[in-house]
Amino acid sequence: MKSELNQNCSEVTEFILLGFRTSPEVQILLFLLFLLIYMVIVVGNISMLVVIKIDSRLHTPMYFFLRNLSYLDLCYSTVIAPKTLATFSSEDKKISYNGCAAQFFFFALCVGTEGFLLAVMAYDRFSAVCSPFLYAVHMSQQACVRLVIGSYMCGCVNSMIQTSFTFSLRFCGENRLDHFFCDVPALIKISRADTFVNEIVLFILSALIIVTTTTVILISYACILSTVLKIPSTHGRSKTFSTCSSHITVVSLFYGTVFFMYAQPGAISSPEKSKIIAVFYTLIIPMLNPLIYTLRNREVKNAVKKILLRKTSFH
Predict the structure, then answer these.
(1) Would you state the pLDDT for residue 1?
(2) pLDDT averaged over the chain?
């Protein structure tokens, strides 16, 4: 039906991001809140990158993957936050067609890559706990680099497919996106073309990524749990499983929100619900990840203390 409407209307060259439709006073409060969150994201993730780089004890496969996770969190929050802050502080809420496509491409690239990277991190923990004597072979530097490159390649393929399908749709007349960034559900909603295929592609791609990566994660942790339960001492079990607790928390937060946002056929029907969930995985999770790995990981805490003590000693 959509394709039969407004055949003579002009093609869209820019979009208007409606964002959160609230009073000017609330917009100011949201601007300050988002700015604070983004500052914490930048400081937290850059600090994690610096700590892992400086401390030689953290030059292990686990922290190599964690460094890439921090980099991805920093990247995809930066793709979203500056433009969102600009729309809060200005009457000009426009984004060009090409700018919208670029924003979505890099966002989908980073989020898709993070999903695969979390699966790689689960496999790393599986190798460390279940095959400690072969860990150096399974997780050699070359193997780690290949796994990270593979994660980026899978994320890139996902992003190219979703971006090409989404921006091959016809956008005509209506250019107001009921969202704070360019995301598929909001774009599909205003398209003048038949979006059935796009909705199916979105669902299949999201489900495929979630199913494949969560399968790796669940199998890895099932094997880890089985191995941990065979350890005779309570202290040994607690120490072994504590190395995985941070990753389990991050995985639960990430996949829980992504599932509710993309992997349900009716997920695109509620714009307000989509915005709230989107805030969580575009800003809250990148803010929480460094805190989770710092507070729940003894090695990272010790590295941070060592760096702080070194700085105070210089003074």
Answers:
(1) 45
(2) 86
Q: Which of 10-14, 151-155, 177-181, 293-297 has the lowest mean pLDDT?
A: 293-297
Region 57-79: mean pLDDT is: 94
Mean pLDDT of 176-190: 90
Rounded to the nearest 10 degrees, the angle between the axes of helix 24-54 and helix 298-314 is 90
Entry pTM: 0.89
